[in-house]
Each structure stands twice: as structure tokens, then as C-alpha cells.
Amino acid sequence: VENRVYKISIIGAGRIGGTIAHLAALKNLGHIVLFDIDEGLAQGKALDLSHSLATDTIIGTHSYQDITDSDVVIVTAGTARTPGVTSRDALCEANVAVMRSVAEAIKSYTPSAFVIVITNPVDVMTYVMHKFAELNRNMVLGMSGILDTSRYNYFLSQALGVSPKAVQGIVLGGHGDDMVPLPRLTTVGGVPLMEVLNQKGLDEHALTQVIEKTRYGGTTILNLLKTSAFYAPASGAVEMLEAYLHDQKKILPCSVCLNGEYDVRDVCVGVPVVIGQTGVEGVIELELNEMEQMNFKKSAQSVEMMVKSIGWTS
Ligand SMILES: NC(=O)c1ccc[n+]([C@@H]2O[C@H](COP(=O)([O-])OP(=O)(O)OC[C@H]3O[C@@H](n4cnc5c(N)ncnc54)[C@H](O)[C@@H]3O)[C@@H](O)[C@H]2O)c1
After folding, report:
1. In this structure, which residue's CA is closest to atom 13 in ligand 1?
2. Which of 146, 225, 228 best tests ligand 1's pocket when mutated (most atoms within 8 Å of CB)?
3. CB crowding 98-128: b at 16 or more within 10 Å, else e
4. What is the value of pTM for the model shown?
5. pLDDT higher than 70, residue 201
6. Which of 35, 107, 196, 237 makes the best surface tag, with the fewest CB within 10 Å?
7. Which stretch of 5-14, 201-210, 245-254 has the lowest confidence by average pLDDT?
């Protein structure tokens, strides 16, 4: 076990970036560099966090040189949805430009870092990062599956009257309206969900409602908050960060560039991966039935179409 201090750079010191810095500092995961094009924002948040935790291990900057030799870079930079923006895809054009500039900086200053992308539309941004920063696919992941799964687990737990911690769900596919929750492979306290639904006298309709709430969970929060969610997205990223730094070999649903798995090639989309000290140490291929595979393919195809629409040819 390595006993050194890790360097974690967070690009974008907004709502999600700031929350990640707070969580990572609370957990003592390493030294933190908070970067933003808005210099005041990065420095102000770094100071506030430093005062809150009585630490001198967080800096705020707008100079990319400060991310040199990071162990991990987490990318939250870009535009977020505002109420009325129903699709994350609408952010694509603006955020591709942001992603290209961040990718250039990673390539120049910290090419060996493990990179976690959060900026939306996250599957497309993960692909752009993978290509422009010239990262091996084991070193770049998008965060969304953890978030979608936590929403699914929560809404399902409320329908069943159990703790969200008792539900072990799984959501595959892109982080969009065609994400693919998998009730067939969901368990509640170790018991297959279908059995639990029967016992509780709940029907398909209850399940459909849970799935709809999951699909539109982000939009529901957006309409309430007037900005997009940030606590849960930040928690998802920190779970991935810890899995990598502490070689946990956790199996987490993340957007990864597939290379023939699930019959999909050269598209980043959400599937379970094993995260350990070398990054993505494996892609778990679940046996999907015909309908699940069809829905998964549809989701992957919509990510692929979005990548094509930005003019990227691999
Ligand atoms: N993956 C997910 O599941 C998920 C969930 C929620 C939100 N998001 C996305 O995460 C991103 C961040 O959301 P947020 O709520 O923190 O937004 P935010 O507006 O609070 O923060 C974004 C920050 O990025 C900075 N920025 C913009 N361009 C930059 C550049 N070129 N270089 C460096 N910094 C730059 C801005 O100054 C801002 O401080 C958005 O794209 C949002 O849609 C993803």
C-alpha cells in the first residue's frame, strides 16, 4: 500500500466542483487543486474550504500549470442545464469546446492522470476527453451511472417502504432519457425485486412509475432548484475517486469507451466497471435479455449520433 499524498485536481469550481472538493477534503483523500476560468471563484472557494476544515491542502487557481502531475483530474467545467433545458444534449456544442481546452491541458501537464468526467452530456464529453487527451480507455471514465442508480434505488425504496440502502439496483446506458434500469437484476435485501413486488402486491405500474421518476429525476431537481443537482453527482465522483486511489476494486456503473463489449464499439456509455489502482480493471458484461439489449443499443446509438453530430471522426 502506497503511503504518499495524492494530488487531486478539479476543473470547474462551480456547484459540483466545490462539493467534490469539500467531500474529498473531509475524507482526507489528498491535496486539492481547484481550477476555474473564473479565478476569483476558485480562489474564494479554496479559501472558504481551507477555513472550514482548518487545512492548508487546498488551493484555488486559474493557471493550468498548477495541475501538473495530478493523480486524478475530475472535470466539471462547462455549462449546466437551466430550467426549460429539458435535454442534456443541448449543452453539447458549448461543452465540447470546454472539454477540448481541458483535454489539451491534461495532455500537456498531467498525461498519466486518471480522469473522471462529469460535464454533460457526459457520455459524449467522456468520448471527447478520451480522444483529445489521448488517454487509454482504462484511464478515463464518465460519472453518471452511480447517480442514475442512486436515484433508482431511492425511488424504488420509497415505493417499497424500505431503506434506500436495502436496494441494489443497476442502471445501464447513456445518461439521458433512454437510460436502461434493469429491474430483472435488481435485488432488495438480497431478494430478487420481482419476488418483493409480488409479496408487496405491487404491479408493473408501480415499477413503471419508479423508472419514469428515475429517468426524469434530474429534471425534477432542476425545476425545483433552478440549477441542476450537485450533491449526488459530487458523491458519485468521490466514490470513483476513492475506488481508484485506494485500489478498492469496486464495481460501479460508469461511462467507459466500449471496445466490442455489449456489441458496441468506440462509444462511451454506462456499464459496470471494476475500478482499482490501474483505473478500469475490467468491464463487466451482464447477460441481457433481448429487450434489455435492444434498449441498451438504442441508448448507445443515441450517444453515437451525438458524437457524429459534433463532427468527430475517429
Ligand atoms: N454527469 C452527471 O451525472 C451530471 C449531473 C449533474 C450535472 N452535470 C454537469 O456537470 C457540469 C457542472 O455542473 P455545475 O452545476 O457544477 O455547474 P456550475 O455552473 O456551477 O460550474 C461549472 C463551472 O465551470 C466553469 N467553467 C466554464 N468553462 C470553463 C473552462 N473552459 N475551463 C474551466 N472552467 C470552466 C464555470 O466558470 C463554472 O464555475 C454541467 O455540465 C452539468 O450539466 C453532470
Report:
1. 80
2. 228
3. bbeebbebbeebbeebbbbbbbbbbbbbbbb
4. 0.97
5. yes
6. 107
7. 201-210
